[in-house]
Amino acid sequence: MLHLTKRAATARPYTSINAPALRSQLHTASASLLERVFNAPQRDGTYAFDLAPTPTHCCSDGAAVASKTLAFRQRKRILTLAGKRGLSSVATSHSQAGAEGFVPGASDTTSTNTARLPSKVLIANRGEIACRIIKTCKELGVRTVAVYSEADAKSLHVQLADEAYCIGPAASSDSYLRADRIINVAKLTGAEMVHPGYGFLSENSDFSLALSEAGITFIGPPTSAIISMGSKSASKAIMLAAGVPCVPGYHGDDQSYERLSQEAKKMGFPVLIKAVKGGGGKGMKIVWHENEFEEQLLSAKREAEKSFGDGTVLIEKYLLKPRHVEVQIISSAPPHSQHIALSSRDCSVQRRHQKIIEEAPAPNLSEELRRDLESKAVEAARAVDYVGAGTVEFIMDATTGEFYFMEMNTRLQVEHPVSELVTGVDLVALQLLVASGAPLPLSQEDVHVKGHAFEARLYAEDPASNFLPDVGHLQHLHFPAESSIGSDSVVRIDTGVRSGDDVSVFYDPMIAKLIVHAKDRGTALRRLRLALEQTRIVGPKTNVDFLKRLCDHPAFISADELDTGFIARYKADLLPAVPRPSKSVLTCAALYLGLRDSATSAANAGPTLSAFQALRLSAAQPASRTYLLRGRASSGSEKQPHVSVRVLQEQGGVFTVQLHEDDGAISSIRCITTSIAGSEGEVLSAELAPTDAADAAFPSPRIQATIVPRRPSSNALDTVERLDLFLEDRQIEIDVVAPAWVAELRGALTESKASVKSPMPCKVVDVRVQVGSKVEAGDVLVVLEAMKTEHVVRAPRAGVVATLAAKAGQMIGEGVELVLFEEETAE
């Protein structure tokens, strides 16, 4: 039995306009075909499809009209996106093609007269990149097919696509990495092309080859280019032959510890271990001293094997002040074989070997050096007969300006929007055009970089805990309004999530990309800072406040010290200890709690009203409530002292808030609430006036805060509620603390024992201790893996392992006790 799943009301509704032919095809499909597509039926024995046919399929009588309309829209859009030069012949070929369908493999032909865009593209990806590709496809009139895992059934890219198909469970290995299922969905839906996005199968040569054999066009380079550039050792040999400089290192086949260690000693430490098929910082380790080499080598090999299926590594000399500079290229297929450099980018500011903020063009480069970089990037593309959008990455010595080839990413990069904004092209549109066999509609002389652009990656992670990835429910999500190219500055948001979605342990923790463009670097950076200020995210921990401090840092503003060691060098500035909440913050938090609790009491017996509406209607009887409030420290193991705050409710919306300080002093603040709204969080506006004229704690008597309440995490034993306040240009977390007896009742640990808990849902990779083991502070206890990255858990202090719950290979949730250890007792 075939199970058809209708869309949610927010998506394109299921319609019968296109249904007859498609339903007939599906209902007559054999069980064996369905088994090949999905490999396994649903629990009830049915196969689940999520179908949303598009009206462009319907009405055979109008096929010619639809085709002409599509061709017109495509020509108009590409002219707008990519410039007019050279497009006339391509546009003419679209109209001449008339109602003829797209011929798979057109990119391999020598004829340009029949080149046209596809009618349907399958996107073999998820999240923001899938949504971004869908956006361009819709503007070009190209229908889209989404694939999704069970965890992504309600995700944004599924809702935006014209058709969507579940391809397996949440784990990437069972869904987004299942090339066979994706190809079968492409066949089933009649998709002529597959766009791989980035990550997953985007640089998988077997996937590219399998698509070609199935008669489906892969939107990317030839399989040969993926193979040669997918191996860091092979790619460096090709680059050296092409005259592109490379970093000294060992790229040999002998992967024994003895040989690798010997080669590292020859180069001299520090050295860089890199997975030959790596990317995104996976399988990459810096080794500063010889005694660290073995442990870091084993870790790099494990990460590489899990992420790429190949644990082979290479060793390179590590430059002490390296800049990460790259060049965006776009190439057309033979016989055109155009190779164009669009713009340089700087991605030097990184954490955990992963980019966090990118900009275009790369700052503080002479015009001669910029041209040299772009020339070498074009030579790299030409050396492998490249086709499509790609990025040539260089590592540059920040002190000398010398640069070396690092790798070539044979796909669209995460940071491609900054190149789009400074050049005015749509790279996805050009990818579709090139994959259709057409020449590029511009030459190198047509490329003019205008203004400056930044991209900030908004991640679910904890900067204070070495940027440990975080997961959780996005309870509140607010981005700044997007603006268009016509204004002096541009704000663009690329995201694949909405309020109410979850950041999953199974995938990359990026929430969104915030991209800005302005006339120069200084203006663009100020615009980025403002856009970050207007961003509010409540749920998992994020790097938003960290990015604000980065934008404010003098060394980043000047761009004189950009290199991959930037964050480590300025760690104290970028990751300061979280200050105790100010009086205005505590006052707002207490006022919110008092308003809400009073209103809840007043509304209990009445009709359904908002809490604040009920407060306005309640009898204005004097009342008081006391709360214990505590700011969130920079580390989860630290706790700030709590403050007792009393809220006195008076007549007419007037309150007095009393703060009881550590030294016994009491500060009283008179508060008049002026407005309250609750569309996105609770927006509280109030006038605050200290009753003591000598108290200068309030620079402005009028204050406005957005407050979002939420439950604390499962291991917050003494916390009954958590408030996120957006105030004073930052996000401040306030714990509402339970009385001491409540914490004791919840089983708070005694001082003689301590436990180590899992910081997030993860997999236990290795357990280094056993019951009875004596450990010192800093000893490795457990190695965890989350989001394809290993995380080492170390002992916070000396002790003896009392109980051990962690087992290698085990999947565990957040807050699970891994190791319980106690102080060593004297015999």
What would CATH call the architecture of the largest domain? 2-Layer Sandwich
CATH superfamily of the largest domain: ATP-grasp fold, B domain
Low-pLDDT runs: 1-76, 79-114, 611-621, 693-697, 743-752
CATH topology of the largest domain: D-amino Acid Aminotransferase, Chain A, domain 1
**What top-tier CATH class of the largest domain fits best?**
Alpha Beta
Mean pLDDT: 80
Instruction: Strand order, main sheet: write it out.
Output: 28-29-30-31-32-33-34-35
Total strands: the figure is 43
Cα distance, first to last residue? 70 Å
Number of individual domains: 5
- Helicity range: 25-40%
Report the principal-axis shape.
Answer: globular
Q: Specify the number of helices.
A: 23
Percentage of residues in DSSP E strands: 25-35%
InterPro entries: ATP-grasp, BC-like_N, Biotin_BS, Biotin_carboxylase_complex, Biotin_carboxylation_dom, Biotin_COase_C, Biotin_lipoyl, CPAse_ATP-bd
GO molecular function, one term: ATP binding
Domain Lipoyl-binding: 753-822
Domain ATP-grasp: 236-436
What layout of secondary structure does this protein have?
Elements: E1 2-5, H1 19-28, H2 31-38, E2 47-50, H3 63-82, H4 88-97, E3 120-123, H5 127-140, E4 143-148, H6 156-160, E5 163-166, H7 179-189, E6 193-195, H8 205-213, E7 217-218, H9 223-230, H10 232-241, E8 249-250, H11 257-267, E9 271-279, E10 282-287, H12 293-308, E11 313-317, E12 322-331, E13 339-346, E14 350-351, E15 354-355, E16 357-360, H13 367-383, E17 388-397, E18 403-409, H14 416-423, H15 427-435, E19 452-459, E20 461-462, E21 468-469, E22 472-473, E23 476-478, E24 490-495, E25 502-503, E26 510-518, H16 521-533, E27 536-538, H17 544-552, H18 554-558, H19 566-569, H20 571-574, H21 583-603, H22 611-617, E28 623-631, E29 643-649, E30 654-660, E31 666-677, E32 682-690, E33 702-710, E34 719-727, E35 730-737, H23 740-745, E36 753-757, E37 762-767, E38 774-775, E39 780-786, E40 789-794, E41 799-804, E42 811-812, E43 817-822
Parallel strand pairs: 1-2, 3-4, 3-6, 4-5, 6-7
Antiparallel strand pairs: 8-11, 9-10, 9-11, 12-13, 12-17, 14-15, 16-19, 17-18, 19-26, 20-21, 22-25, 23-27, 24-26, 28-29, 28-35, 29-30, 30-31, 31-32, 32-33, 33-34, 34-35, 36-43, 37-39, 37-42, 38-41, 39-40, 41-43
Domain Lipoyl-binding: 753-822
Domain Biotin carboxylation: 117-572
Protein name: 3-methylcrotonyl-carboxylase
